């Protein structure tokens, strides 16, 4: 991105490094950007980084504390000098006045900017003249000089003696860094990360994102203990991040600051709230389903990375190696999860509740195997190429197929009966099964059976439905109908799911639709070249995935009844295709003029 | 350009798409689970334009209706398929059309496609020729055409097996959409529905996104 004018970036740094701007622009920045302060020194020479150091000789660099801003125990910024002792009004809402007089909300109010007064900390600070770009400001004018004239949020000074390093859990004898302060802060290029007003990440390049995510205390990450999940959840597709990690060579003193920070984050941990991050990496790797050859190669890379001499000192690296070995041997953590059955063995007969139980067991077994990868790829299977016609064996497609089969099975079973009275009996039976599924919190199975009942071949059997006279069944039918109608509305559905007492089987279709919606409304990348990852999109996707995963891991305490299960599996699997069912339905009740469902069954 | 293929189960939606993208006939396809995807570049000669078609092939069964509905929203064109040998699939087309109208862009171009005409191609001339096919035509061309006209749909008879009219179907839809773009019905720049290949201003994108999010969630 040579043209900075078009970069839609809220600059994490207004940097004048030559990689970003050419000389003329650099000069422009020097004159226009009156920045007397810098948060930190040149990242390439760690020695210059001392607290309160005057860094005015590094022109034009303003850094918003990104991942590098360290949050002390009390949640205050440390490593910063108080700007003006008199300025204690921390809550002063910071707004920025643009050159044309418009007041814009300041992104820094939540993304605390920190600044050193160059020489004398007690000296009142000059108004900051900040020139920055943000996607929001771009709407109003292309270049805005923002003059900040309010008081700075006062920053609590932490003495050098209370150095963060002393609180951290990692040793100071590290070969990589001896203490926090020796570590240069990572520098993010202007285009590396895009931040929102509230400091949450909008997007960024892969390495920038990885770095940010391995860092527990980046602004906006309020959940201090949630780091491992966060990394995993936000980066639902951890393949690329892992690859980035594995490519770091620990022995080479990293030149790129983000590398060292990454390494630091990973191996040593940032020490304040989390243990060594590598432990959490372990859990991530255990959760990931390594299937393809490419992914196993990645595993090898990570192993090589961990075996490196520089990491000898860290036992956690060894532990991770052990768990990778387990994965290689095929002992993923998934297979070690066992369900204890303590329910009483029920009698094997085709009682609706028991049928529902077995159906749910079959379904939940598959659902638990469904991997986020499959969910995200759903609907993206291209017809061309080898993937088409080769059977899709992912758990998701098995699950979907089973749902489809189940609804066709309902049709087939009903249509197999000769007389309308018999068919009504079967319909009645299936309504009871669907209701049992509903009471067992299986949204998907309920929906599958119900859609079998309401699919055209069955729904058009007017005579049969007319035979369905049992008021309880009709009431049940209407209840289920109402229940499933709720699932059509995503927000209502979510409220409903929250009210359910687990275990439950969520309606996978709702999530697939939600994922589709995200795909449709958000782009993968925020720039034309495809370098800046739209992190917000990933975050949205990740939250959908997290919702499923929350519900995925609560097993049903039900006993598999082998004869029923085998019977169901056989029956469900041999259901007729829809086209045949239509023909059959026409044979059973050829009258096309009758309405599909009796009025008593049509919702008002 | 995004298309969706909708219609009752086993009317040949997947086959039509495979015919378009791969130029072959999918003899015995598995039922589509949820949605599948196919894309193809087509060239509109007189407009001198190459268009990338992205087709979402949706499942016809009721089970996946809630998934497939979420695909309507982004589509610029819908191919509403029915099977000429199956009366119910034609009557049900009305239901599908209502569904499309309820969920998709109001300006979407809809093409009614009578599929499987190969099964009854020579029926009128020489009924004896249809060996091994117990199927007969149940929906006449006139009837379908009339209904399409009533509803303002384009209409074509096609066969995924022989490839008859398959390209034309997609082509006609593309032309109609192009016409709509030129008339300004679809806003080429801002619309979700038709994406121009010219990379849009990334700034535009970031600005739009939160707003969109708000609108859809």
Automatic annotation (TrEMBL), chain A:
Region feature (Disordered): 39-60
Residue ranges with Polar residues bias:
44-53
Q: Which GO terms describe its molecular function?
A: guanyl-nucleotide exchange factor activity
* Span of domain Ras-GEF: 351-591
Q: Which SUPFAM superfamilies match?
A: Ras GEF
One Gene Ontology term, aspect cellular component: plasma membrane
Mention one GO biological process in which this protein takes part, according to its record. Ras protein signal transduction
Q: Which Pfam families match?
A: RasGEF (PF00617)
- Provide the alphabetized UniProt keywords: Guanine-nucleotide releasing factor
Can you tell which superkingdom this protein's organism belongs to?
A: Eukaryota
Task: Cite the PANTHER family for this sequence.
Answer: CELL DIVISION CONTROL PROTEIN 25 (PTHR23113:SF368), GUANINE NUCLEOTIDE EXCHANGE FACTOR (PTHR23113)
Q: From the Swiss-Prot or TrEMBL record, give the protein name.
A: Ras-GEF domain-containing protein
What is the native source organism of this protein? Answer: Hydnum rufescens UP504
TrEMBL record, chain B:
Signal peptide residues on this chain, from the entry's feature table: none
Q: Which InterPro entries match?
A: P-loop_NTPase, Rab_GTPases_membrane_traffic, Small_GTP-bd, Small_GTPase
Write out the GO MF terms. GTP binding; GTPase activity
Q: Where is this region: Disordered?
A: 190-217
Polar residues bias located where?
A: 197-206
Pfam families the UniProt entry points to: Ras
Q: Which family does the record assign?
A: Belongs to the small GTPase superfamily. Rab family.
Q: What is this protein called?
A: Ras-domain-containing protein
């Amino acid at each position: 991105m040579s043209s900075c004018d078009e970069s839609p970036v809220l600059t994490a740094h207004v940097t004048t490094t030559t990689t970003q701007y050419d000389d003329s622009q650099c000069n422009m920045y020097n004159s226009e950007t009156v920045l007397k302060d810098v948060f930190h020194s040149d990242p390439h020479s760690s020695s210059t980084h001392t607290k309160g150091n005057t860094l005015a000789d590094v022109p034009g660099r303003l850094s918003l504390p990104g991942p590098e801003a360290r949050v002390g125990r009390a949640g205050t910024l440390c490593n910063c000098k108080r700007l003006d002792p008199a300025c204690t009004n921390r809550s002063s809402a910071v707004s920025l006045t643009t050159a044309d007089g418009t007041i814009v909300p300041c992104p820094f109010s939540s993304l605390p900017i920190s600044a050193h007064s160059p020489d004398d900390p007690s000296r009142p600070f000059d108004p900051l003249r900040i020139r920055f770009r943000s996607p929001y400001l771009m709407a109003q004018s292309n270049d805005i000089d923002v003059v900040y004239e309010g008081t700075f949020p006062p920053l609590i000074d932490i003495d050098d003696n209370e150095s963060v390093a002393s609180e951290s859990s990692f040793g100071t004898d590290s070969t990589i860094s001896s203490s926090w302060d020796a570590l240069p802060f990572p520098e993010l290029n202007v285009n590396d990360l895009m931040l929102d007003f509230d400091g949450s990440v909008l997007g960024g390049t892969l390495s920038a994102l990885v770095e940010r995510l391995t860092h527990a205390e980046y602004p906006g990450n309020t959940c201090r203990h949630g780091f491992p999940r966060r990394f995993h959840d936000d980066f639902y597709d951890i393949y690329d991040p892992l690859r980035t990690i594995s490519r770091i060579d620990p022995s080479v003193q990293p030149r790129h600051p983000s590398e060292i920070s990454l390494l630091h984050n990973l191996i040593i941990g940032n020490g304040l709230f989390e243990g060594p991050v590598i432990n959490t990496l372990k859990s991530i790797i255990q959760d990931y389903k390594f299937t393809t050859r490419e992914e196993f190669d990645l595993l090898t890379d990570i192993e090589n990375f961990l075996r490196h001499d520089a990491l000898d000192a860290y036992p956690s690296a060894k532990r991770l190696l052990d768990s990778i070995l387990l994965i290689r041997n095929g002992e993923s953590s998934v297979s070690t999860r066992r369900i204890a059955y303590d329910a009483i063995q029920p009698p094997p007969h085709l009682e609706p509740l028991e049928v529902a139980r077995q159906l749910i067991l079959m379904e939940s077994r598959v659902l638990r195997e469904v991997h986020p990868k499959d969910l995200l790829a759903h609907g993206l299977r291209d017809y061309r190429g080898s993937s088409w016609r080769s059977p899709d064996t992912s758990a998701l497609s098995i699950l979907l197929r089973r749902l489809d089969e189940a609804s066709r099975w309902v049709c087939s079973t009903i249509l197999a009966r000769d007389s309308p009275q018999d068919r009504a009996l079967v319909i009645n039976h299936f309504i009871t099964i669907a209701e049992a599924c509903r009471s067992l919190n299986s949204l998907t199975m309920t929906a599958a059976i119900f859609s079998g009942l309401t699919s055209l071949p069955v729904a058009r059997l007017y005579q049969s439905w007319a035979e369905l006279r049992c008021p309880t069944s009709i009431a049940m039918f209407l209840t289920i109908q109402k229940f499933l109608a709720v699932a059509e509305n995503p927000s209502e559905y979510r409220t409903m799911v929250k009210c359910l007492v687990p275990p439950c089987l969520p309606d996978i279709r709702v999530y697939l639709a939600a994922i589709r919606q995200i795909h449709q409304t958000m782009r993968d990348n925020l720039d034309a070249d495809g370098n800046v990852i739209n992190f917000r999109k990933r975050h949205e996707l990740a939250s959908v995935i997290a919702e499923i995963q929350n519900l995925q891991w609560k097993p049903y305490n039900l006993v598999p009844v082998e004869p029923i299960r085998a019977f169901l599996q056989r029956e469900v699997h041999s259901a007729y295709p829809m086209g045949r069912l239509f023909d059959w339905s026409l044979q059973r009740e050829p009258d096309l003029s009758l309405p599909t469902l009796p009025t008593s069954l049509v919702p008002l | 350009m995004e298309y969706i293929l909708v219609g009752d189960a086993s009317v040949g939606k997947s086959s039509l798409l495979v015919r378009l993208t791969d130029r072959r006939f999918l003899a015995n396809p598995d039922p589509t689970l949820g949605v599948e995807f196919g894309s193809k570049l087509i060239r509109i000669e007189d407009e001198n334009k190459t268009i990338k078609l992205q087709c979402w092939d949706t499942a016809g069964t009721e089970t996946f209706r809630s998934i497939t509905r979420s695909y309507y929203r982004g589509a610029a064109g819908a191919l509403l398929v029915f099977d000429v040998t199956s009366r119910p699939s034609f009557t049900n087309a009305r239901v599908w059309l209502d569904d499309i109208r309820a969920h998709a862009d109001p300006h979407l171009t809809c093409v009614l496609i009578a599929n499987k005409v190969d099964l009854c191609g020579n029926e009128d001339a020489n009924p004896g020729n249809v060996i091994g096919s117990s199927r007969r035509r149940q929906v006449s061309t006139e009837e379908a055409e009339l209904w399409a006209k009533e509803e303002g749909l384009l209409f074509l008879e096609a066969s995924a097996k022989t490839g008859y009219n398959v390209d034309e179907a997609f082509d006609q839809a593309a032309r109609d959409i192009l016409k709509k773009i030129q008339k300004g019905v679809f806003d080429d720049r801002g619309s979700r529905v038709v994406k121009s290949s010219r990379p849009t201003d990334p700034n535009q994108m970031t600005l739009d996104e939160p707003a969109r999010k708000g609108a859809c969630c």
